[in-house]
Amino acid sequence: MKASIEDVARQAGVSTATVSRAFSRPDMVSAKTRAKVMEAAQQLDFSVSRMAGILKSGRSHRVALLVGSSKLDWFTSRIIEGLNEVLRSAGYDLVIQPIGDAGAREEFFDELPVRGNADAVIVSSFAITPAEIRRLNTTRIPLIGINTASQGFTASVGIDDKAGIRLIVRHLTTLGHRNLLYLYETFDATMGFSSHNRVTGFLEACSELDGVTGQTMDMQAGDDPVDAALTALLARDDAPTALCFHQDSLAIPLFFRLPRYGIRIPDDLSIVGFDDSDFAAEAGLTTIRQRPREMAQLAARMALDLIDGKTPAEPHVTAPVQLALRDSAAAPPR
Fold first, then answer.
1. CB 139 within 8 A of CB 116
2. Which pLDDT tens digit goes with each residue over 42-75?
């Protein structure tokens, strides 16, 4: 196998960004560091396989991925997997940039046009401002969105969160449920996460159905979802017969702990999630299936086309979602 930029970085004891700058922007790297990088590249034969192409094209051969969290959750890990499968084989390195708040986002977009250290930027799940989009447009760096509601992306791929939650609501009401509760973690409003559309979509879907009551309950980050669920069940005279969770990871703990309190799933309470993430099938969780790995692969191919000056055949794609029916939802108890 040909050596990758990660191999060179590991050998030289520096970051992949430093290796890239040593080739494409040597003025930004100290002589000592560049010497280490070049020695490692020579030992790994990287100079033959990659350096000439980088210098000739004037590209960094790097794609930046902006994620709206410092945690590597199920969705983000699948996004990284899909991007790497396409980009690595094309000779590009993926650089992950966690964006935890508005300040980190502003810093990234201030520095990127100056450094020119990415050939494309992919934004996953959160919104960026029109000013940030304009700043990238002036540098002609392609901007690709994955599951983001912002306008102005050069290309994008994502699901319709409202359509997904509508499937859940229709399934539960077809089973006979009339009192539904949606639980989600509190959002950072400055990030504009696209999945917030699930909350508004839930309320809209319930309001359109006669005799159906839909309520929401937000949890603080780190709250125990089981405690939140039990509080909702015990604090209300009109206790919900079905709980809808914003994501599978919040729903799955209930399968292990609710039976301890005499609550059976789905005999006493129906539970549904969103994502079809790891362990959802094993737990028997009814959920909405989305495919982030496949979306990321498409986003990567779009990025490569745009870097080469080509317009993708379909630059803005809405990926399908699917209702994954399992054993966690049934008719409400009489």
1. yes
2. 888 775 445 445 544 556 788 999 988 767 789 9
